[in-house]
Each structure stands twice: as structure tokens, then as C-alpha cells.
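The pair is quoted verbatim below.
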Amino acid sequence: MTIVDDFRLTLGGKQYVPIVIGGMGVDISTADLALEASRLGGIGHISDAMSTFLSDRKFATKYTKAKAKLHRATRDTFDKSTVKFCLEDLWKAQFQFVRDTMSRKIGDGGIFINVMEKLTMGAPGDTLRTRLQAAMEGGIDGITLSAGLHNNTMKLMADHARFRDVLIGIIVSSARALKIFLRGAGRVNRLPDYVVVEGPLAGGHLGFGEDWREYSLGPIVADVLQFLKKESLDIPVIPAGGIFTGTDAAGFLDAGASAVQLATRFTVTRECGLPDKAKQTYFRANEDQVYVSTLSPTGYPIRLLRNSPCINSNIKPQCEPLGYLLGKDGSCQYLTAYENTPVDEKGKKLPVTDKICLCYHFSKHNCYTCGQYVYRLKDTSHQLPDGSYQLLTAEHVFNDYLFSKEHHIALPEPEIPQVVG
């Protein structure tokens, strides 16, 4: 029986252990988690979700406060068309985060950044270009384009000196979506270096509609592999979504994939940026708590836990300090939903039931996005005497994927309770 360690991923003439940790935001895939993947020879992602807010938290900058002060005149209105990001601040935040991460890199692996097209930020083209250019300038090894078709994204990068040498990949959920991206890439004569194929069991936002149950990762990966072969394109394919054991991963590698992208099992590691309360919530999750909803104002379905604090919240829109999902005209589906939600007899806004303020709740880690198999996490660790579960290390989970056979999941060494007194 083959194991994941029998394979290697080749990108840009360099070999990697074929394990990629996905870029979960906001700072769920921390720099520390990505650095561990790199140290172990694989690839780790950081996320550029809400980079100016993240910079304030990590480096004590004041970008969010300055933006809120600049746009305070619109706080009590629903017209957010003038709310914009300072591109210079955005560039500095992205650059500093990437440069700081890269300065700490050790090992033979890679550090990539996940860049989302759906973070429209009031000026979709300008803000996306700024984030991409700053990441390249900061020395990132690779850029994974996500949350959108990225028709024109390659053009936004093309004038940078590193455009031809930085590794670039695209996340798709079908061969059709890949074809659309390749047409745009062809206009600047730059093929992607890899393709991540994300199935319907992935965590967070999905590239499927309400019919997501009709699809499965295996056939989609096979379809993409067949399309690339037909077009004589030698581009590595990396499946993602619902790959819970090393045996699952080895099966895709045996079938022609070049690596696998993983996330769910790394959410309960010490290096993950989720608060411990959220990690324990993931450990305790049951299957019936996992659902795919239309609550996200991005327009994409989103998988999360039913006990997420963000659900039925009535938080006032936070567009002035945040506003990462504002369209170029200042629109946002949550903004509209909040405006249309009535107040009670005391004048208090009732719960907003059909959308969530993604910016605010992601910043507070109140949105428990998750993969379909989050309820299996309790089987990957030990329950402690107080009822909580032992947190794992990224190295333990990484190596379990690498060497696992017959869907066996290796438990960590039990923690020894400390005796006080």
C-alpha cells in the first residue's frame, strides 16, 4: 500500500513533500502554521484576508483606526460609496506581513499566500493589484488565487519583476472554471504553476451552488486531469476538501494528483490562529451541527457550524473601519439586509437572519467555518479529565498524513497532568 511519503510534488524545478496547508483567514492559517509546513518540507499558506486589520493586531499599526476616522461621516448612513481603503496603507500592511513571515522561514518547503478575489474592498481591481504586488515584493514563494474566477488577475501582476518566477496557482471547483482562468492567463502568456481543485466538502466558502451534494471531489479531479491531458498541459493538480486521512490523500496521489491541500485537521493544532474556545468547539462538534448556508454576503454558499455566534446577530455594519466586502459602488448584501431588518418596540434592531457581517465576525472568530468532517476531529486526540480535548501540533498532524496507512489516525502522546502543590 502506498503512503503519501512515497510521492513528491515538483514546482518550479524544486521538490516538496506533497502536503499543502490551505490558507484559512483571518489569520487562522497563521505564519507559525505555514512556517511549520515549510520546515517539514511541505507548503504552508498564509491568508491575505483583512490584511490591514491583521497588521494592526500583529504589528500595532493603526490602519483600521485611521480608516474609521477618515470615513466617520458615513457611520450612520447606508451610503458607503465613498468608503475606500488607502492603497498605500494596504500595500504596507501586506508587504510587512509577508516580509516578516518570509524572514523567519526555515526548511526546504514553501510559503504561499492565499489571495481572494471576493475581497472587493470598495475598489476591486486596485485593491487586488495592491495586495498581489505587495506579496511579490515581500518575497512570497507562491500565490494561490481563490474565491473567484480571476479572469484579469494575471494582468494585474504582469508588470511586476517577479511575475515570471513567483509560483502562481488557481483554486477551481470544475474544469470549466479552469478553462475560464486559462483564457485570461493566456492573454499575458503565463500559465499557472499548479491547480488546486476544491470539492464540495471543503470548509468555508464553496465554489458550488445549492446543488453541492450532487458533486464529489474524485470525479472533479479526474475531469480536470483529463482536460489538462487533452490540452497537453503539464500542470500539477492538488485536490482539496474532505481529505481526512493519509489514506484518503494517497488515493488521490495514486490517481494522478501531485499533492493534496488540507485544512480541517490543522484547525485544532497549537499553531492555528483560532482561539482555544473555537478549537474546543470544533472538537465537540457533531455531524448534525455542520451545514451549508447562504448567510455569507459574498454570494457564495458557506459551510459552518450551527452554533456559530455570528448567526442571527444584529451587529451594525462595520464598513468604516472594515468594509472588506464593499463593492465599488459601496454595496454589500449584509448592509442591505441590516437596513431591511425592522426594530422592536423599543427601537432595537431585530436579529438579521439572512446574512452575517462577515468582516466583523471573521475579525472576532465568531464564524465557525469548517470542513464537512469537522465532527471527526474528536477521534484525532485525547479527551482530558476536564472534558476538553488535547490540542495537537502541526508536526504531528503533518506526519500522520505522511505515513498513515489503512485510514489509521495516530493519536498524540497523552499529556501528563501537572500536579500543583
Summary: The first strand starts at residue 9 and ends at 11.
